[in-house]
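Review this chain:
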Amino acid sequence: MRRCVQVLLALFLALPLSVSAAEDEAAPAQETADGPDAAAAPQEDSVPKHYLKVTLNAPDEVQGVLKEHLRLLKKDQEVPADEMARAGVQQRARREMQELLQTEGFFAAECTFETPQDDHWVMHVKTGARVKIAHVEIHFTGAIAGADEALGARRAALEKAWLLPVGEPFRQSDWDSAKQNLLDDVASEDFAAAKIADSKALIDTERGEARLSVTVDSGPPFKLGELQVTGIERLPDDLVERYNNLRPGEPFALSRLLDFQSALQNTPYFRSVIVDVERNPLLAEAVPVRVQVVEANSRRLSAGLGFTTNTGLRFEANWQDVNLRRRAWELATGLRVEQKEQAFYGDILLPPRKGSHYRDSFGALIKRSDISGLQLNSQALGVTRARTRGHISTALSLRWQHETTRTENRHRDTRALSLDYGWKWARVDNVMDPRQGLLASFNVGGGSRALLSDQNFLRTSGRLVWYLPVGERDTLILRGELGRTWAKSREGIPQDFLFRTGGTQTVRGYDYESLGVEEDGATLGGRYMAVGSAEYVHWLDAKWGVAGFIDAGNATDSLDDFDPRLGYGLGGRWRSPAGPLALDVAYGQHDQRVRVHFGISVAF
C-alpha cells in the first residue's frame, strides 16, 4: 500500500511538470510563426551531420565501374547510427557490387569490409576469374535462311563479323553490342524488318565459361516503292524528286537511303532531312520511301573580315537566295574588297534535272587587282555544268572574258572565249584538316581566234598534294604543281590563262604572284610554271603545332629561262574552326629577304 501511494504521488507531481514543459515548448513555436525571434528556436537540422569515408581496395580493371555506380562510394553518405544499420548498408553494397561486376564478366566477386574507425571503412573487393566465351551459336530464320548461294555467303560473312568470338571476356555491354551489330548488318540490306528472335547467355560460374546463342529472324526481303515527301511548303513540289536516284522495285539498302539523305542535306534548301522506310513486313513488296524535310531559310545575308599576307585586309559581304522566283534557283552574289584585289560576282545555280548528277549554273564576274606592278581589270560571263560523285568532282565551263592590263608604260586589251574542263579527286581523312590521303586536280582549257579570242591557246595545269602521317600526331606534306600554256606567245592571252606564283600556299619567301615574267616594272604571267614543296608539321597538342618547310618554283615564258626560286623557313599552326591557321617566317634565297606569310592552310 505504501508503494502504491508513492507511485501515485510521483505521477501526480510529474503531471503538471510535463504539461508545463509542453506549454514552454509551444510558446517559442508560436513565436517562430508570428514573431521576429524565430531564429532563437532550437532546430533539429542544426545538429552537424557525420559523413562516412570509404576507401576502395579493388583491381584496377573494376575501379572505374565501381566508383561510377556504387552508391556507397558516392559523397555525402552518413555514418550508420548503429550496428544493425551498418550491416544493412554493407549488405546492400555487396549486392550492388556483385550486380555491377557481373555485367563485367565477374560472377564470383566477393567483398569484405574493414572498419578502422566508425566513419572510415575500407572496402576490399576480390573479383575472381572473369568469365570467357566458350561457345557461340548464331542461327538465322526468315528469307535469309534460304538455300540460295548468295544468301549462304551472306550468312557466312555475318557469322565471321560477329564481335564476341570464343575466348573473349564476357561483358554485358559487349554482348548487347554484338547482338545489335549483327541485327544492324542483317537489316542494312534487303531485310529491313529483321529482329532478334531469341538470345541466351548461359553462364557456368564454376568453369568460368559463357555459352552464347542468338537467333535473327530476317523477315521478308524488301523492295523500294514510291517517294512520300512531307515538309515541302515554299519550295517546288518536285525538288526532292530531282535529287532522287532510287528506283521503284530496287532492293532495300540502307546505304542507298543514306546517300540520298546526304545529297539532300548537302543542298542549301533544307535544315534537316530524314530518309527511311517503315519496317513493316506487310509492305515489303513495295515499301514507300519516306522523306521528311524541314526547309531552311531561303534568304541569307552574311559579312566578314579577314586578312592574309597575299592580298591584305579583306571585307566580304554575300547575299544568298535559294528559292529565286520560287523555282529553287539559287542566287549567290558577293562583294569582296581586299587591299590588292576587289571582286563582285553573281551566280545562279539551277537544281539538277530528275535523275541527273549534274548541276548547271551561269554567272558574271567583275574583278580588279594591283599586284606586283600589274593593274588588271577583267569582266567575265560564263555557264558551267558541275558534277560530284563520291571522291570526284568535275566542271565543264564556257566563259567569255575581257581583260585590261596596265604597267608603267603599256596598256593591253585582250578577249577570249574559252572552254574549260576541271577535275578534282580527294581522298583524305579530314577535309578541313587532312593528315593522311591524296588530293589531285587537273584543268585544261583554251580558246581560238576563230571563236572570239585574240589568240589561239590551250592551258593545262595539274596539282598533287600528298599527306603522310608520321608517328601519332605529325604530318609530312608533299606538294607539286605544273602548268603550261600552249601558244606561240603570251601576247593576246588573258592573265587568267597564264601563270604567276609566289606567296602563301605556293613559294613562301616571296611576295604574292611576284614570280613570273619581269616586264616594264611589273610581273606578268608566263607560259610555264612549276612549284614543289615539302613541309613537316609537328603538333605539340590538339590545337598548336610548329612546321618546317622548303618551297621551290617559278613561272617563266620559256623553259630555257626557268630558274627555280628557293624559299624555306619555320612556322606556327593553330587548328581553328575554319581550318589550320598558318603563320610562316620564310627566307627567299634569291632576294635574300625574310618575309612573313599568314593565312589558312588549306589543301585547295
User: Anything to note?
Assistant: The CA atoms of residues 14 and 23 lie 14 Å apart. The mean pLDDT is 90. The two ends are 113 Å apart (CA to CA).
